[in-house]
Design goal:
Layout lengths: L10 E5 L5 H10 L5 E5 L11 H19 L3 E4 L2 H14 L4 E2 L5 H7 L4 E6 L1 H4 L2 H10 L4 E6 L2 H10 L7 H11 L9 E5 L7 H8 L4 E3 L2 H11 L12 E5 L10 H6 L2 E6 L1
Parallel strand pairs: 1-2, 1-3, 2-9, 3-4, 5-6, 5-7, 7-8, 9-10
The structure holds D-glutamic acid.
Length: 269
């Protein structure tokens, strides 16, 4: 097979599916000429329903193969589930900078007026000690109500394929937060899965009253910009490459949306 070789070392983004596009999108605004490899572990989706042990082995192994093949300058784990479980494992396995994506509890804590924050993530993310530590460090005086909504991962995937999604999926996720004690006082919702900003409009509609949403993508973009500030991009004009662990033909329904994100080459890992 004729494999694509970027003309200069790329930045690599990693997620299970298209969720990482919410991070890539913000990053492109700050580093528009960097060559991009976007890796999607479709064979492993959904991470949110997998065990810690499985992900702590799978994610570093996959990233090791990707780094060996594409020799990126920097890796961004554009997935909260993988980051909150495997970030340390990945960092110790790779000798390049690794940026993780973790729930934006710090800015949420600064934004809330009622002191009640909703946190929507995958089932795996919301139970992580990493999240407990973030909450203790940055939001210890706030109430944080967590809800695991992996169905939203499928909803975001379906939306990108151009399919119609049942609005009940969004209202169920919001009800999962609101039905908890103090839930009616939530005024900020942290989208702690990179798929969820892709359906933020639908979630806002399901809330039906003013609500602020926050996710970590802008902060990650600034971090990537900082870590690459001394690099000069040749503006090679490379089209972004999407590498999947799944079947290439499964990407067909996504191609139009992926092209809008600058990803128009496709390979399997
Ligand atoms: N996008 C991933 C995250 O941020 C999760 C998707 C999945 O469950 O595979 O957690």
């Amino acid at each position: 097979m004729n494999q694509f070789a970027p003309s200069e070392p790329p930045l690599l983004f990693f997620d299970t599916g298209i969720g990482g596009l919410s991070v890539l999108q913000e990053s492109r605004k700050l580093i528009s000429s960097a060559p991009i490899i976007y890796a999607a572990d479709y064979a492993g989706l959904p991470y949110g329903m997998k065990s810690e042990t499985e992900l702590a082995a799978r994610v570093p192994a996959l990233l090791g193969r990707l780094v060996e093949r594409f020799k990126p300058r920097l890796v961004t784990i554009a997935c909260n589930t993988a980051s909150t479980i495997a970030l340390d494992h990945v960092r110790s396995a790779l000798n390049i900078p690794v940026v993780g994506t973790v729930p934006a509890l710090k800015p949420a804590s600064e934004m809330t007026k009622t002191g009640v924050i909703g946190l929507l993530g995958t089932q795996a993310t919301i139970r992580q000690p990493y999240v407990d530590r973030l909450a203790a460090e940055f939001a210890s005086t706030k109430t944080i109500l967590r809800f695991g909504a992996s169905e939203l991962v499928y909803a975001a995937e379906a939306k990108l394929r151009g399919e119609k999604v049942d609005s009940r999926i969004f209202s169920d996720a919001i009800a999962g937060l609101r039905s908890q004690p103090d839930g009616e006082n939530i005024d900020v919702i942290v989208l702690a899965c990179t798929h969820f900003p892709l359906v933020q409009k639908e979630l806002a509609h399901a809330v039906g009253r003013p609500m602020r949403f926050i996710n970590g993508a802008k902060g990650i973009a600034r971090r990537i910009q900082h870590l690459t500030k001394d690099l000069e991009w040749l503006n090679s004009g490379d089209e972004g490459l999407l590498v999947t662990t799944g079947a290439l033909k499964d990407l067909d329904p996504y191609r139009a949306a992926l092209a809008r994100h600058g990803l128009s080459r496709f390979e399997t890992l």
